[in-house]
Amino acid sequence: MESVGRLWPRWAGYAAGAWSVGAVGVALYWASGGETGSPLADAGAAAWVIAAFLGVGGIMAVSSVRDVGRQMPRWWPLTGLWTACVLAGAGTFGFVMNALQLVFDGTVDDWPRFAVEFLCAVGAALLAGTALAYQRGTAGRCARCGRAHTGTETVKAPPPVSAAPRAVRWAAYGGALGFAPYVAMKTTWALGGSFAGIEGEQVVAEFERNGASGLVLTLERYGLDFTTLSALAGVFLLMGLTHAWGQVFPRWAPPLAGRRVPRWLPLAPAWLGALTLGPYGVVGTVAYLLPPVLGLRDLPHDGLISGWSGWTVAACGIGAFAAYGVALGAAAWSYQRRTRPLCVSPGSPGGGAPSAP
């Protein structure tokens, strides 16, 4: 019996279609004036547009796995699917930050919004998988591996272990280095020092006013800021995506040493992080950081984030997210392509030699 993973090009379209039914229902609820879980302050007409595009995406998802999808102009399903995928991806904005808050604080500010972000992540994955399967299949390639081969009775085998191209590795190093000012700032505060004219005690007091959990406050007292720990975990993910040990568990990870790393394990947080942090950092840099420098907008005036001192603090965070998010997207794309399973003939060495291209 074929595994679920092997059958994904067949069921992804139906799953994406089913997801779109619920997503369209939520969008119509927002369009009719509902506010619970809405990512927009005033959805209004935008929700109608979102519902329409998601509905078309769902129809095209189901069509793509049926004969009607082969009778349409190829660009119809692809346009509908990728447009809906982009919209669903935009809906994940904030998911990573909320997930980190859930880990360290045990709660999130808005549970319905968090649920919508999670469901958008699921939808984006289903729509992207459906679009890729249709795109490959209609181009005469294998829907599973994306390569052209003649074998019909094939199984999946992992590709050779490889590091990312040099350009991607350098981008990853740049993304990691982008966190340096942010980590320095947060660590200084956690140790009770002063950064950009703001004292560590003020930051801790701000955490307490905002209802930070006991875990967060305890970490701060020992000089460990929870966002710094998250940044270090993010750098670890970035390095894993670009180095060979991100595909096979290394010796320093017993008892898993030598085993293949499941592709979804690094790719799921990588794509969520890239979709969340990249746009936040890039848009924040253009819309928030540059205008005061160019004299087009006044400096921020909001509690600790005020004047040039506050601008410096914001720049450390937003700049880090921009550099890291872009690098993470490039690393995730490279990892996904390098680890794409091969279709091989059963019974051949290692599961079978690659089928004839």
Explain how this protein is built.
With 357 residues, this protein is mainly α. Helix content is 62%, strand content 4%. The protein contains 13 helices and 6 strands. The protein has helices at residues 8-31, 45-64, 67-71, 75-90, 95-105, 111-137, 166-177, 180-190, 200-209, 214-221, 226-242, 264-293, 307-338, and strands at residues 155-157, 194-195, 198-199, 301-302, 305-306, 342-344. The strands form 3 sheets. A two-stranded antiparallel ribbon has the order 1-6. Strands 2-3 form a two-stranded antiparallel sheet. Helix 1 crosses helix 6 (111-137) and helix 2 packs parallel to helix 6 (111-137). The longest helix has 32 residues, at 307-338. The radius of gyration is 23 Å and the shape is globular.
- Count all strands and give the number: 6
Low-pLDDT windows of residues: 349-357
Give the overall average pLDDT.
88
Strands of the widest sheet, in order across it, are: 1-6
Shape: globular
Query: How many helix segments?
Result: 13
Strand content: under 5%
For the largest beta-sheet, the strand count, sense and barrel status come to:
2 strands, antiparallel
| Overall radius of gyration | 23 Å
| Proportion in helices | 55-70%
